[in-house]
Design brief:
Jelly Rolls, elongated, mainly beta, 21 strands, Immunoglobulin-like
């Protein structure tokens, strides 16, 4: 959503413009309208929605911009222009009303035996990224994202998993909106047949950790801080302080001591 103040309009002497842009979310906009700087009348004097002058009564200390009058569908673009006198400014009371929300309903979600996740949604009211997560190491881990289409009609998406671990894999897809509002799909599971359980070895000088195959990995210190993260089969820990660390790889969490 975009909120801008633009001054010195050519069509009205000493007039200014408050511009709001976003996506229609089935909500109206509420405006607090101050008195004009001269003390005569109110600040805002005209409102336009997508270029059309509204019939809302703006000559008051507060007013509502009724977006239901413009035949908008959820997710449609909205541009609101509030024309007001110079030296004062109306205030939008609920600017978040035009921000996309995670409103989708999961129609279906599946995962193939090759790790291709496919999901279909209904009821999107604005474009938000779909975040793909995998449950591993006793937590949900980010693995990628797909930009949402944002239309309320049926939308279908897919995401190819590239680094499954051995054994059963669990995935889900979610959206996060304003105020960290979250909506998630159900989990899907699959077990890759070609992925063997990995082993690890620590070099004698404890400067490297070698995995028996390529894997996502994370390494934590004893305070729970991530000190290393990546994908591969060799972890270089030569520059780390001596002490105990927790190494997450494949579907395992192991303790490694740097000497």
């Amino acid at each position: 959503m975009l909120l801008l103040f633009i001054g010195s309009l050519a069509f009205a002497s000493e007039s200014e413009l408050l511009l709001i842009e976003g996506k229609y979310q089935n909500k109206n906009i509420y405006v607090q309208n101050s008195y004009a700087a001269s003390g005569v009348g109110y600040c805002a004097y005209e409102v336009r929605v997508n270029g059309n002058v509204t019939t809302d009564e703006v000559n008051s200390s507060a007013f509502e911009i009724d977006l239901r009058n413009f035949n908008l569908q959820p997710g449609d673009g909205v541009t609101i222009q509030i024309l007001h006198k110079g030296g004062c400014s109306p205030r939008i009371l609920n600017p978040e009303a035009l921000k996309p929300r995670p409103s989708f309903k999961t129609e279906s979600i599946t995962i193939s035996n090759t790790g291709l996740i496919t999901w279909s949604t209904l009821g999107e009211t604005g474009s938000l990224p779909f975040i793909v997560e995998q449950y591993r190491w006793n937590k949900w881990v980010y693995v990628g994202e797909v930009e949402g289409i944002g239309k309320p009609t049926k939308n279908t998406y897919s995401f190819q998993i590239t680094a499954p671990h051995s054994g059963e894999n669990r995935f889900r897809v979610k959206q996060v909106g304003f105020n960290k509002e979250v909506r998630m799909t159900p989990d899907v599971k699959y077990t890759p047949t070609a992925v063997a359980a990995l082993t690890y070895t620590v070099s004698k000088d404890t400067k490297t950790i070698d995995l028996s195959g390529e894997s996502m990995y994370e390494m934590y210190d004893v305070f729970g801080n991530v000190v290393l993260r990546g994908v591969g089969k060799k972890l270089d820990i030569a520059d780390f302080d001596k002490g105990l660390y927790y190494v997450c790889f494949d579907n395992q969490v192991v303790e490694v001591r740097r000497k």
